[in-house]
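Re: that chain you flagged

S.,

Sorry for the slow reply, it's been a week of failed gels. I finally had a moment to sit down with the sequence you sent. For the record, here it is as I used it:
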Amino acid sequence: MNHYERLGVPRTANAVEIREAYRSAARAAHPDRHGTASADRMAQVNEAWRVLGDPARRRAYDDLLRATGADATGAAAGRSASASDRGGARPADAAVSQTTQAVVTGVPSRFPWRFLATMAVLGVAAVLVGSALTEPAEPGAPDGILRAGDCVAIALDADEVSCSGPHDALVEVLIPFDQTCPADTEAVRDRQGMGTACVVRVAPADVPAETVG
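Prediction finished late last night. Pasting the structure tokens below so you have them in one place:
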């Protein structure tokens, strides 16, 4: 299952549709509702959002799916199944299916490692070239979904705020409730209930001068 399938959206979904699908999937898989048994599902949902919620990562991921001959609806697996019905899977289709499984789910593949290494290098190169040619985007307005690098105000929970204004900490990483934050961070509950925000406190001097009273 690839990241699009984990969130239940097609490859053509826009950013808003992906964000809403992530929220819905996160609520459905949240350990607070279903216990620790759903921790793996929550981790998969968070990883899908980490990739598809970032435009550069999503482009590289789409390139990788195209390079391995797979699409978001499992077309490669469908072609392999059809070939089996006609008397056995074709070797090329079987290879694509195995490679797609290895790239998307992390399951070890019997496909030649040289091919996988080539695909990985192409994906990394695409991301690096895209980053080099793209001007840094202006920070967007807070959307209520915490990500690494977001600025937060902390009362009882972590609430995303603009980094250009007063803020208490920076989010290092967002993890499920049953996991532990790194030793150099502080664990604060995400106000949206999506997990635990591992944050690093900022000193007043780190806050933009125009926001300090």
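What I noticed first: The helical segments are 3-7, 15-29, 31-34, 39-52, 55-67, 75-85, 91-105, 113-133.

Talk soon,
D.
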